[in-house]
Design brief:
InterPro entries: ATP-dep_DNA_ligase, DNA_ligase_ATP-dep_C, DNA_ligase_ATP-dep_cent, DNA_ligase_ATP-dep_CS, NA-bd_OB-fold
Order of helices and strands: EEEEEEEHHEEHEHEEEEEHEEEEEE
Protein name: DNA ligase (ATP)
CATH topology of the largest domain: D-amino Acid Aminotransferase, Chain A, domain 1
Keywords: Ligase
Family: Belongs to the ATP-dependent DNA ligase family.
Radius of gyration: 21 Å
Largest sheet: 7 strands, antiparallel
Pfam families: DNA_ligase_A_C (PF04679), DNA_ligase_A_M (PF01068)
Oligomer: single chain
Shape: globular
CATH architecture of the largest domain: 2-Layer Sandwich
Length: 301
């Protein structure tokens, strides 16, 4: 069975209009994953073409289905009403079998399926989206592991609801459209809310002795995961306060599990901050981050 390069949406600002030519779906902040079933075996391939079957063994339960197929969707770890991005990264980035077995029972996933591309050996990407979704809804049922993505006609209401719930945003999909693999198309349009994330300052990037940006991480259990640098919103007052505080926090090596270089001055990640951003990039860092608040009084030990 050939491997598919996932279709991608275009990003546009929301115009607060309901377009009758589009259906609307919730945009979950998960890990994109294609699921292949062939010869009785399930294989999971991410959007970079890497095999992730080992990381998510729960989805082997789909092997009981008789048909061969290719599904497109996002894997999430739901907490409350939204995806925990730090926990899905932990699941996605782990290759240790003992940890994977532990996570299966302690960090359960949900696979949100929004498209079917092949069914019983027949590729249906050229079929209209209504045909593909009708087939998908007749073939699969939502349960504790599988979530079938719902369609909505009222994009404005859905956009406002997702904002209230703290979700990533919505996707508009053109009625009658084909699945155009490997391309960004206006047949799919994503409208996203700017989000706020809590992080910790783990490093400084200097330019001529002045802070250019801060290396930010999120805390997951006892580990800190690097999610990018932020310079926008870093006022002169903040720079002075961080330099003063940073003197007592300097360490020799990066505090982040997944990032290190020789350009930064590394700090113990003790000072909390809040970052506003547009979305997660393909390499799981923040896109268009803006520093909003530094909480020196919330000092982590």
């Amino acid at each position: 069975m050939k491997k598919v390069i996932p279709m991608s949406p275009k990003l546009l600002p929301f115009d607060y209009k309901n377009d009758p030519d589009y259906i609307y779906q919730i945009k979950w902040d998960g890990v994109r994953m294609l699921t292949y079933k062939e010869n009785g075996k399930i294989t999971l391939i991410n959007k970079y073409g890497k095999d992730k079957t080992k990381q998510f063994p729960e989805l082997k339960k789909l092997e009981i289905l008789k048909a061969n197929f290719v599904l497109d969707g996002e894997i999430m770890v739901i907490e409350g009403t939204k995806n925990s991005f730090s926990k899905i990264l932990k699941r996605n980035n782990t290759s240790d079998i003992k940890k994977i077995n532990f996570y299966v029972h302690n960090i359960p996933i949900t696979y949100s399926v929004f498209d079917i591309l092949c069914f019983n050996g027949r590729w249906i990407m050229d079929q209209p989206i209504e045909y593909r979704q009708n087939l998908l809804n007749n073939f699969l049922e939502s349960n504790s592991l599988i979530h079938l993505c719902q369609n909505y006609n009222e994009g404005v209401e859905l956009f406002q609801t997702t904002k209230k719930l703290g979700l990533e945003g919505i996707i508009a999909k053109k009625k009658g459209s084909k699945y155009t693999q490997g391309k960004k198309s206006f047949d799919w349009i994503k409208y996203k809310h700017r989000q706020i994330i809590e992080g910790y300052i783990g490093g400084l990037l200097l330019e001529r002795g002045i802070i250019k940006s801060l290396a930010i991480g999120i805390k997951e259990s006892d580990e800190f995961i690097y999610i990018g640098n932020v310079g926008t919103g870093l006022s002169e007052e903040y720079k002075k306060r961080i330099l003063k505080k940073g003197v007592e926090l300097v360490i020799a090596d990066s505090p982040f599990k997944n990032f290190n270089d020789k350009k930064h001055i590394w700090l113990l990640p003790r000072v909390k901050c809040f970052i506003e951003f547009m979305e997660w990039t393909d390499d799981y860092t923040l896109r268009s981050p803006v520093l909003k608040v530094i909480q020196e009084d919330d000092y982590v030990t």
